[in-house]
């Protein structure tokens, strides 16, 4: 019986150790939150867990040990250093962003008051008049217009007021962050009405980094934004043809998407060293306009126009927020 109890205890111990292995990283960090200063991550899930370190206040440096791809936005609301350690973070889709800092909604205040002057409109009134000429009775509809005064009034526009955590300091260093290409759009291949024949506008990637508050330091980092997508090519309208009426008009091509941008700042100030490089994204190509429906009878329709070209992405939306060191 003693041997059986000893063997059972060993089995239970091994089982407990095996069950704890998948959560070992997170448990170790939480148990030593007051002493841990650095943590190594090798996956998107680890990066998401330790960047938003609300309950792990001891960690102040995150170190990548391999290249990773992220498909979800990464929020960094408090001070931390992200050491890419020579590795690359690649965005898995054009909606991914890294946001720095945080803000708290305090309420709403009046932004402006718009005065609308009064005016007069003619209100239509209809009534039926019965007319009898001795032989038959007729009902005549009579329309009159009566002026109606609409008084002056004011409308109020409100805006949100936030408080910003300006004590946040986030450093990103020693590696590469690469944005994703914009989603592509398809070409139009069939349309009945002309409104359905125009090409779709190309897409633009979101800015790679959003600065909400605090300070962002970039040291020896390559930031490469994704390109915008091409505008869709148009087709022509397939409206029903009658004799001596022109064929369907050609649609306009879609506008090109803009290139991806690097940083969009609200209250964040960005410090950049001389070894950091910014490569904004390039725009896509405009979509081609379509010729008219070739199956016209007498007069053919008009030719559509090509889409408008896009623009390159920007490094930062407010250059006063960018300080080179």
List the helices and strands and how they pair.
Elements: H1 2-20, H2 24-31, E1 38-41, H3 44-51, E2 61-64, E3 68-70, E4 74-76, E5 80-83, E6 88-91, E7 98-100, E8 103-116, E9 119-132, E10 137-150, E11 153-164, E12 169-178, E13 209-211, E14 215-224, E15 263-265, E16 269-272, E17 277-279, E18 322-324
Parallel strand pairs: 1-2, 2-5, 3-6, 4-7, 5-12, 6-12, 7-13, 12-14, 13-15, 14-16, 14-17, 16-18
Antiparallel strand pairs: 8-11, 9-10
Question: Largest sheet at a glance?
Answer: 10 strands, parallel
What separation lies between the terminal Cα atoms? 74 Å
Question: C-alpha Rg, in Å?
Answer: 33 Å
> What is the count of β-strands?
18
The amount of helix comes to 10-25%
Estimate the global geometry from the Cα principal axes.
flat
Summed up, the helix count is: 3
Secondary-structure class = mainly beta
Order of helices and strands: HHEHEEEEEEEEEEEEEEEEE
| Contiguous uncertain segments of 5+ residues | 4-36
Bin the strand percentage.
35-45%
Please, what is the average pLDDT?
Answer: 83
Describe what this molecule looks like in 3D:
With 325 residues, the chain is mainly beta. The strands form four sheets. Strands 1, 2, 3, 5, 6, 12, 14, 16, 17 and 18 form a ten-stranded parallel beta sheet that branches. It has a four-stranded parallel beta sheet with strand order 4-7-13-15. Strand 1, helix 3 and strand 2 form a beta-alpha-beta unit. The longest helix has 19 residues. It is flat. About 10% of the residues have low confidence.
